[in-house]
Amino acid sequence: MNDVAGQRSVRKAAAALLMLAPLGTAAGCASAPRPTPDISPTAVAVPIDERITLPTTMGLAFKHPLPSNKIEHQVLYTVQQSVRAQLHAEYGPGAKDPLLSVYWSGAALTAIKHDVSGWSAKHQQPVGVLVVSNTTYSAPNSAGKATVSFCTNWRHVMRGDAKTHVVGPAVQKANTPGTFTTLTLARSGDGRWKVSNMTETAHSPKCAVSK
User: Quick one: fold of 3-201?
Assistant: First the structure.
């Protein structure tokens, strides 16, 4: 094997090991984001809570205001779980992941399944930490619908090959703003909050530019 081919083999092996490494190791940089502690379910939600276990190579940093009341707690918890369900589906089960319909419904469920299918169609998995920040909460209106807006930054999430376990490029390019997302949430028939509508604006001026 010549030197060039040997170097390529070493880089490929190193990339594969990176995808299998825990987040603390894969980040490889003190400035890389870390997953944040999860919002705990309220007492009412505990009996019907669906636990979502993400792989050690994928995490969520959800930066949000401190809930000031029970409803805000429930809504922000649902937003957290909806994003975790999305990442869970993108990493493995795909659009058929039953966890998606626990937190998403209607047009939002259709939209998120489409996003998830984009990963599985290319046999890719997210690797890294998704950062959700600039979170704002609006209490339920007269129709009983609450809204939560935030910026998503995919700069620290890489595209991993599900077959070879080789890590590819970051989802979001450097020096680009994140995606501004607004979720509408409503209570379902069983009393649980679900995301019923979602709007996304990529490279939004409302979101900070990634480094």
Answer: Nuclear Transport Factor 2; Chain: A, (3.10.450)
pLDDT digits 0-9 by tens, 37-79: 788 876 655 555 667 889 999 999 999 999 999 999 999 999 9
Q: What span, in angstroms and rounded, lies between the C-alpha atoms of 49 and 71?
A: 16
Q: Domain segments of the chain: what residues?
A: 3-201
